[in-house]
Design brief:
The chain has 306 residues and is α/β, with parallel strands linked by helices. The protein contains twelve helices and eleven strands.
Length: 306
């Protein structure tokens, strides 16, 4: 049986390491402060934001949610970000993506002060990442490196294949793996013979957003699989097919009306991988943990400067 890389355990360890740092900042004057801007009513984004606020409360981080309407203009959202940039008590600003189509998302992300950019999305911080200079790193990619390191999975000299080239996961995780001295290949929907490229991986990061797309032919024996996918299945027949008629999964579907699955086939990964992150309970919990870590680090840097 492969080793299960338990994201909930790593998340709890990271949170426990942050507690004394939050307490020290609070004792020095004020706790770290995070502002989360959620435009509109996207249900998935609402759940993410609720979890972020709950985790802040658990750690003693001050948090503020701003919920402007779906109809907001780029100018109005820029004004909100500008006000948060000027706030002394706010160390981190997160604008939840996706934004509605009339909003110029790139302009909004560029307007966040780089020192408060706890998502690591500002071009300054993307540059810091590429140059391997200090600065906030995108949360999911940073979480992936944490889980590999904390499970003592060697990265240096290993062949890593990243499937997916998004700005949020694929590109930054490839750069972080490169800085850890892996030999990195980034592939995507236009890569010829994707399965053959994936089979070369000793570390395979799946970040494509396609339910159970990477099946046995994509996996070499003993590969470490990091599955970033969180795909919601709402078709019972699809649940039955992907989970091989698992009574447990079908019961869960019948209760909730949907079931989560990653980008990697959940049965094939168990048969072929040496270690893997489950879905749910793998990479997901780490994204919020790293957001908290970025917020605390930002507060520490700002406290040292002020
Ligand atoms: N939407 C999905 N993932 C993310 C993330 O990491 N940060 C933000 N701001 N929005 C997201």
């Amino acid at each position: 049986m492969p080793q299960i890389l338990d994201g909930n355990r790593v998340r709890d360890d990271i949170k426990n390491e942050l507690r004394p740092r939050v307490a020290a900042l609070a004792a020095q004057g004020r706790p770290p402060g995070l502002a989360v801007v959620l435009v509109g009513h996207d249900p998935a984004s609402q759940i993410y934001v609720r979890n972020k606020v709950k985790t802040c409360q658990d750690l003693g981080i001050y948090s503020e949610s701003l919920t402007p309407p779906d109809s907001i203009s780029t100018g109005e959202l820029l004004a909100i970000v500008g006000q948060l940039n000027a706030r002394h008590d706010i160390d981190g600003i997160l604008v939840q993506l996706p934004l509605p189509p009339q909003v110029d998302a790139k302009r909004i992300l560029m307007a966040v002060a780089p020192a408060k950019d706890v998502d690591g999305f500002h071009p300054c911080n993307v540059g810091n990442l590429v140059a391997n200079l200090p600065g906030p790193r995108a949360c999911t990619p940073a979480g992936i490196i944490e889980i590999l390191k904390r499970y003592h999975i060697p990265i240096a000299g290993k062949r890593a294949v990243v499937v997916g080239r998004s700005d949020i996961v694929g590109k930054p995780v490839a750069m972080l793996l490169l800085h850890e001295h892996a030999t990195v290949t980034i592939c995507h929907s236009k890569t010829p013979d994707l399965a053959a490229v994936c089979r070369e991986a000793e570390i395979l990061v799946a970040a494509i957003g396609r339910a159970a797309m990477l099946t046995a032919e994509f996996l070499s024996n003993g590969v470490t699989v990091i599955d970033v996918g969180t795909n919601r299945l709402d078709d019972r027949a699809e649940v039955a097919r992907i989970f091989r008629n698992s009574a447990e999964k079908l019961a869960s579907f019948d209760k909730r009306g949907n079931v989560l699955v990653g980008d990697v086939d959940p049965q094939d990964v168990v048969e072929k991988a040496g270690a893997y992150t489950p879905v749910p309970g793998g990479v997901g919990p780490l994204t919020i943990a790293m957001l908290m870590a970025n917020t605390v680090a930002s507060a520490e840097r700002r406290a040292a400067v002020c």
